[in-house]
Design brief:
This protein folds into three domains: 36 residues, no CATH class; 118 residues, no CATH class; 64 residues, no CATH class. Helices cover 55% and strands 12% of the residues. The strands form two sheets. Strands 1-2-3 form a three-stranded mixed beta sheet. It has a three-stranded antiparallel beta sheet with strand order 5-4-6. The longest helix has 28 residues. The protein starts with a helix and ends with a helix. It binds zinc ion (ZN). The site of zinc ion has 7 residues, from helix 6 and helix 8.
Length: 244
Amino acid sequence: MTPDEFAKFIGTLTGSAEAAALAKEVAIDPVAAREKIRVPKDAGEYAADLEAILRRIPRGWCHSIDCGPGWYPLLSRLAKKLAEVDPDGLIEVYQVKDKFAELRVYVGAGELPCCRRANEATMDQHLASDEHQELAAEAKSRLKVVNALITELTDQSREICEDTGEPGIVMDSGNWLRTLDPVTAPDHYEIEELDEELVDWELRIAAGDVEKLEATVRRLGREVAHQRVVMARLLAALRSERGR
Ligand SMILES: [Zn+2]
């Protein structure tokens, strides 16, 4: 099959001109297609930050941002931190994706510039040199700063809808976990764990006791985002109950 035939085949199969164009690129040069910088089309104001992250992905890794736009503000913070602590690019990014309903970013120190310059025959000597030791220590300390931020962003992503950026909660489609706003989540996603408290609220809501519910949510004093999500979910349940 020629690249054009392959593109036509994929285009017919998917009904997408974009998929067909990508298929052609893959057919012509799979490695180049994989490593081409593709800033997500919905990047908007975050395009430059996402591109900066994509440019840190080394050869051999898929150059893509595999999460929804609701998390782009988190990635923007990461891009700015990387630019600040690692302006000369000692740190590489390997993957950016959603996994188990949270943002995962994998980073590491690539081959250090001093090692790239060193002669293979004298590598042992180079590795013991002050120049190498200092740069390696510097890379390690930068990674520590960046990984601390990534941990923070991963934690935050569990309360932000990956699609919309609104407050979110972990939801389960049966085979995939995502953090979504229950108001806009696709129908086949359910809140992952309906704890007993929540079920109790659902029952009160069904009985129309909204004031009691609101008081309960306030009393519990959870994070604002979580409260909003729970309220939205339960108020939606009440509306559908009344509509019945
Ligand atoms: Zn070195």
